[in-house]
Amino acid sequence: MTELSEVETASADRPTLLVTLTGSDRPGLTSAVLSTLATRGLDVIDAEQVVLRGRLVLGVLLSAPRDHKSLKEELKALASVLDVDISVKKGVGDNEPRRKGRSQVTVIGHPLSAAGLAAVAGRIADTGANIDRISRMARYPVTAMEFAVSGADPEALRTVLAQEGVRQGLDIAVQDGGLYRRAKRLIVMDVDSTLIQGEVIEMLAHHAGRLAEVAAVTEQAMRGELDFADSLRNRVEALEGLPASALDEVYAAIELAPGARTLVRTLKRLGYQFAIVSGGFSQITDKLAAELGIDYAKANELEIVDGVLTGRVVGEIVDRPGKATALRQFAQRSGTPLSQTVAIGDGANDLDMLAAAGLGVAFNAKPVVRAAADTHLSVPYLDTILYLLGITREEVEAADAETPA
Fold first, then answer.
1. Topology of domain 102-178, per CATH?
2. Whole-angstrom Cα distance, residue 113 to residue 116?
3. What is the pLDDT of residues 359-379, one digit of tens each?
4. Where is the ACT domain positioned along the sequence (predicted)?
5. What would the CATH number be for the domain defined by 186-373?
6. Which of the chain's ends, N or C, has fewer CB atoms near its CB within 10 Å?
7. Is there a catalytic annotation at residue 190?
8. Residue 192 catalytic?
9. Which one of the listed residues 13, 132, 190, 400 is annotated catalytic?
10. Which pLDDT score is estimated for 65?
11. Would the CA dihedral through 125, 111, 350, 347 be positive or negative?
12. What does pTM read for this prediction?
C-alpha cells in the first residue's frame, strides 16, 4: 500500500506537457504532430481526438522534456506549415481520476435542442457531478448523445434527469457506468405495441365484429385497472366461432415497430440472444420468432377445435407474474445472469418483467409503466435501444454495409 502511494505521489508531481491542436481535419495532421514529439523521446500519458464538422481537436499529454521552450518553438513552426493552431502548456501530473459514482447518461431528442442539452448539463452540475466526456450515438432519425458522468449517485441522478426530461420533452436514460453495462446479453421483449404495432387480440376482434368492446377492455388492462388474466378470458370469449384462418390473415397484416428488424439483426450479430414473451397468442408469436430469428418465445395458446376458435385459452395464462417467470427461465436457459438482461415493454402486464431485468425499458408506455421502469423511450423507433447499450448508428450502418441483411 505504501509503495503504491509513493508511485501515485511521484506520478502526481512529475512535470507534464499538454499539446493541443485545432484546425481543419485532413489526413496526416496527427501523424505530423506525433512524429515531431517522437524526436524528443517523450512518453505519451494520454491522448484524445475528435472531429466535428471537419474541425479537428487533438490533445496529447506527455512527459515534459527538459527544454520545453525549444519544443514549443518547433511545434509553432509546424503549426504554420500545417495551417493549424497548436498550443503547448506545461504543468504537473496526469488527468485527475474520475470520481466515484460513474454513470452513462443517454439523451435522445427528436430534435435535440441546445436549450434541452443545456438543461441536462445544468441538472448534472446541480448534483455536484462532472461531465467527463460527451459523444454522439446517432444523428438520425433521432439525435442521441451519451454523457460519461462521475461524482453522483446514479439513482439520484436518474431522479433529477427524469424530471428534466419531462420538462424538455427528451428521453434520458441513466445507467451505472460500470463494466456490466457492456455485458447485457439477453433481450426479452413484449410483443403487442412493442415489437409490433397494435394489439393482435384487437385485430382478431375486428374480424369477429367485436372490436370496440375488446379494445376498451385492452386499454383498461394495459393501464393496470383490470386483472389481466380475467380481462384476457373475457376478451377471448368474444372470439368464439371465429375461423382459425383469421389468424393467418392477422399475421399477414402485422406491421413491426420501426427499427425492430435493425435492433434484432444488430444484436444477434453481436452474440445477443432474443426472447419474446406475450400476453397474446402463440399462434402469432411462434411465427414472429421464426421470421426474425428470435431464440425463445412464450405466449398464451388459443384453443382451436375443428378449425374454429372456441373462445378459450389452453393452459396457464401468461400474465404479469408469468412474464417475469418467463424472463427468468429464458435467462437460465441462455446462461445469462439476470443482471445482464434487458426487458422492454409498454403495459402494466410488463411491470414485473421490467423490474426483474438488469435494465427495464418502457417503450412508448402507459404512465404507470414509465414511472416504474429504469428508463423509457417515447420515440417510435425500437432500434433506439441500441444507443442505451452503447452502440452507435454509424456502427450499425457499417455492419449493414459489410454484411447486407
1. Alpha-Beta Plaits (3.30.70)
2. 5
3. 999 999 988 999 899 999 999
4. 18-89
5. 3.40.50.1000
6. N
7. yes
8. yes
9. 190
10. 81
11. positive
12. 0.85
